[in-house]
Amino acid sequence: xxxxxxxxxxxxxxxxxxxxxxxxxxxxxxxxxxxxxxxxxxxxxxxxxxxxxxxxxxxxxxxxxxxxxxxxxxxxxxxxxxxxxxxxxxxxxxxxxxxxxxxxxxxxxxxxxxxxxxxxxxxxxxxxxxxxxxxxxxxxxxxxxxxxxxxxxxxxxxxxxxxxxxxxxxxxxxxxxxxxxxxxxxxxxxxxxxxxxxxxxxxxxxxxxxxxxxxxxxxxxxxxxxxxxxxxxxxxxxxxxxxxxxxxxxx
Amino acid sequence: xxxxxxxxxxxxxxxxxxxxxxxxxxxxxxxxxxxxxxxxxxxxxxxxxxxxxxxxxxxxxxxxxxxxxxxxxxxxxxxxxxxxxxxxxxxxxxxxxxxxxxxxxxxxxxxxxxxxxxxxxxxxxxxxxxxxxxxxxxxxxxxxxxxxxxxxxxxxxxxxxxxxxxxxxxxxxxxxxxxxxxxxxxxxxxxxxxxxxxxxxxxxxxxxxxxxxxxxxxxxxxxxxxxxxxxxxxxxxxxxxxxxxxxxxxxxxxxxxxxxxxxxxxxxxxxxxxxxxxxxxxxxxxxxxxxxxxxxxxxxxxxxxxxxxxxxxxxxxxxxxxxxxxxxxxxxxxxxxxxxxxxxxxxxxxxxxxxxxxxxxxxxxxxxxxxxxxxxxxxxxxxxxxxxxxxxxxxxxxxxxxxxxxxxxxxxxxxxxxxxxxxxxxxxxxxxxxxxxxxxxxxxxxxxxxxxxxxxxxxxxxxxxxxxxxxxxxxxxxxxxxxxx
Lengths: 251, 485
What we know:
Helix content of chain B: 25-40%
CATH topology of chain A: Rossmann fold
Distance between the termini of chain B: 20 Å
Number of domains of chain B: 1
Number of strands of chain A: 10
CATH superfamily of chain A: P-loop containing nucleotide triphosphate hydrolases
Strand order of the largest sheet of chain A: 6-7-8-3-9-10
Largest interface: A-B, 33 and 27 residues
Oligomer: heterodimer
Number of helices of chain B: 12
Structural class of chain B: alpha/beta
Strand content of chain B: 25-35%
Number of strands of chain B: 23
Radius of gyration of chain B: 22 Å
Mean pLDDT of chain B: 80
CATH architecture of chain A: 3-Layer(aba) Sandwich
Strand content of chain A: 25-35%
Largest sheet of chain B: 11 strands, mixed
Radius of gyration of chain A: 18 Å
Shape of chain B: globular
Low-confidence stretches of chain B: 95-99, 122-131, 135-143, 215-222
Helix content of chain A: 25-40%
CATH class of chain A: Alpha Beta
Distance between the termini of chain A: 31 Å
Structural class of chain A: alpha/beta
């Protein structure tokens, strides 16, 4: 589904990603871990197409298409979803209105008619249940006055509504208490299928107790320096990052 | 910002600037026009053509004489070449029967025009209790639901008809809220006003439908001087809608309207406007000069609420105001003012608190794009006797691109120490982060801007009656089309 090859990217003269290689197939969950400043969020932003990052080398192939040639909205239309680390407020626009607009645009891009409002509302209610979201939520304005946890839950709610092929969860666990974490993780697990894939970006192994990854990658200094199975996450939790970074520096 | 993005932004800005005025067409209807220029004779001709009583002619002549001694105001933060007042045609009436039994009798040409504007009269008739009084080039050509309103004692007609049929009411109230000497443009209007609407709601009557008027300038080079007088008797209630779109013109057109509202004890008036006069082309050529005086007076416990969505005109000079004369009266002003390309707007409100425990609320949202200039100018004056009065003002500006301007000029005068005033103001740009967030959800930049702008204006749009809110939203999208905005 996603093939990243020798990706180099940064902001202005500051190169943050140095030759990233990553392959994600349908049905897989990948975790990307790493210390602060290792380039995790940059990687997420570059895949989604955030403009302030400049790609200076390498390629990203998504289902046989050159993702780097597409605008952010076109990438979304292809099924790329980013759960933001810092979701943005859109004053005056309700959650339901925003999601309706989003779904309508996604469908328009693939030549489909808008979903009737009634069906859409029903779908929203179903997904709200999945994420234990209380009534009254749909008419609140997008992220306005939301707590940190509510913002993150709102991201996963959108993910549930948009049904993307590839979801990138950027630090979705930060700011969540343990109950919220469990609900969000549970939601993500239920949305998992053999047709979609998830990349979970996190500092801590905690989230990975709930969302079990098939692969774990350690990102350090803009490079993936180690990959492994889910046991790697446990090892990182026990031993920290030092041993791997030392290993990497030796090389 | 990468080169690619910068390009798209430039393209977008380009697109905004090049968004053509959608309603630019003229209709081929014969008009009865008098030669251009203004003189005592012209005032007399207008009055005679309308078969007015002597007192009305006297009123016009007094105003004309006052106007001769007045100077065009220059304090507004706008620049334009002053119109040559001798180059304006002061009267034009479509050559057709002024009164129609039903809307079906409407001139097919005119009907076509309204259809182009998306105003289906038939639909409106059916749709929702909207009585439509269409003003086209100064003379009312269609009035509907007159009977239904008549049963309740409500008078809703053209001001010319009111002068003929209800002279005692017109005489009693005309010029009491906006005296002819009030300003240069109100004096001009008082001298030459061609037509407009008159509305009278009797004591205790709650008007069962939204009253609405569409204004339109049609005759080339014709000045439009609308005069509206709305009287709500004690304990009555009315919601009045006014919307305008004008066809494309190369020369500037002058529009100097006067609107007077009178809310007697316990009355409630809601006055909503959607204004979309021709703003001029992308180079800033042409467009309507909109120099309007709108003012209402509230007696005891009365309330006047102004809502406006202003997207058109080359130059706007407009301050719908409330005089809160009676104790416990309430004034409100909700405004969205959009300027694009080379448009200039100096608009806001005046809240004059005279009675005790009077309250006013001002929510003004400005949106500037292109190379335009948007100004909010507002006065809150609390007189010595207006004890325990309150005002809340919120003035927000949203800028699009880096070539536009936005200014806020709040004036606050408080003469007692038991009153409370709050003023909040913000200036923002649509954030890159907001756009990227929308983009990531599959929403293209243009739609994202429309969405964000709609959210920004929500507090004001929510004040509009349903059928108007939709139209207003459409207008916002059209005027900011492509635009960053």
